[in-house]
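Before the break, one more example. Copy the sequence into your notebook; we will annotate it together after we see the structure.
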Amino acid sequence: MAALAVGEPAIWRAVGPVLAIAAFLLSRPLQFKFDLVNVSVILFVVYVCLSWLWSVAPWVSFISAISYVSVAVAFIAIRHAAATASAVRVIAFGYLLGCAYLVVRLISLSISVAGEPIGGRLNLPGINANYAGYALAAGFAVILLLWVTGPATRLFVAGYLVAGAFLTVGIMLAGARASLVALVALGLWVAITYFLRRPPLKALLVVVGVAFAVVISGIADGSLFVFDDTADRSTGGLSGRLDLWPLARSWWLDHFFVGSGTSSFQSSNPYYAGAHNLVLELGTGLGIVGVVGFVLVVVVALKRGNSFLVGGFIAVSTASYLTGHWEAAPAAWVGLAIFSGSAVLNTRMPARHHNRDAARIDVGA
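Here is what the structure looks like once it is written out:
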């Protein structure tokens, strides 16, 4: 199921919920708990569905609500199945399998279009370039999880290095610049943790909050225009985002508390595109209630996770949520479920620590 969410999201949307329910029924269904995470997800999705009642674009909101229901069902089922360390690792390997399949598809498409240069934009059927890039970037956080929680033999390490190189090829083919930013962010997270000897999760959250505040407020729009104009691959206002964001801010202010219906903004602006920012997209469609609800889902899902792994996942995902349409992506919710289950994992710190037992990060530290 994890592999399908990454490699074939269009097919996953049709059969993913069925597979999720089947996985749930095969993994101790009588032991299911309505814990805070599951309750928060259910309440959020119920609110998303109810927003159809006041939507300015009912059909768009109806389709969006179905998407949220699908990813929520999968999220709950994966969390339920990932009750042990081995189960979490199996699901993580499944995510990487989907990444490998996705890279193979990108390479095949590149060959079929007569030598599309690496760094170009390749859109697969049912998957746009940004989705591919974001999913592959998150794959690096999954590699990190597997690397520091499993055997440290040369064979496994070599395998992870090869997997990282393979995913890098896919990211370059997809051409999503946010994915490259995500890799840099993950590298910085690992390096800083290495030198501090502990994961500075609170500091990371402050940085993420500031980044979102900058985009939501628009105080850096002028600088971003200049940056994009001088970049090697100028896309014109960050591929139109700098034109969309002011419209989204204005729309949210007009529908501040409950929004205008999930995803309705994309059919209510001249570009017929989503806001390409998590907070602005949720704010326009679901209002401040939806923004707070989504944030609470993420917080309670990751709160008890391993700090080092959770920080890596946040670092690699921020760019996708900051500039992308990632809030209801199947791969995003599968990744969230995997790292929500990281509480059951024992984790080695980066290599600066030589004593294996002393090097473990306390769960939830």
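Residues 115-119, 351-365 have pLDDT under 50 and may be disordered. The radius of gyration is 20 Å. Try to locate both features in your own notes.
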